[in-house]
Amino acid sequence: MDATGYIDIPLYTAYKKDSDSEYLDGSKYRYALKFDKDYWPLTVFWSLTTYRMSGNIRKSDPVRRYLIHSPLFSGLLKDADGGLTIYLQRESPGRDKESNWLPPPRGLFFIALRVYLPKQDPLIKRGDVLSLEKSVICP
Fold first, then answer.
1. Of 96, 85, 97, 100, whose CA–CA distance to 132 is shortest?
2. Distances (CA, A) of 32 to 47, 50, 54, 85
3. Cα 123 from Cα 133, distance rounded (Å)
4. What class does CATH assign to 9-118?
5. pTM of this structure
6. What percent of the chain has pLDDT over 90?
7. How would residue 4 be classed by pLDDT, with cut points 50, 70 and 90?
8. Which of 35, 83, 122, 135 is most buried, with most CB under 10 Å away?
9. Do residues 111 and 68 touch, judged by C-beta distance below 8 A?
10. What is the four-CA torsion angle of 44, 51, 53, 16, rounded to 10 degrees?
């Protein structure tokens, strides 16, 4: 953080393909995005936003949500190992997991992960990349 109080390094990453190198498709698949408990410090601002492949934020989904971000973190369900799983699927992952549910648009989409890090954060040196695991083929 500099003298003005601003965080120095924005880290933006876009995910268009899953762990099988297929384009993300909200009409065909469900996905689970798993963050390790040590992925980044919980004190930084981060956001995970879904977009149609055309680049537009979609306007309607079952829970009127197109992003999950750090101000919501205290209300998100943590995994048993302390990590965090975000469920990207059209239908509810179950009432107990709805806080972690980010419904994707129908059809092809991508995810933008934005993290705002202090200059010396170790995440920058590690260069971590997340993996989107396909969990189920939708009927």
1. 85
2. 16, 14, 22, 6
3. 22
4. mainly beta
5. 0.79
6. 29
7. very low
8. 35
9. no
10. 30
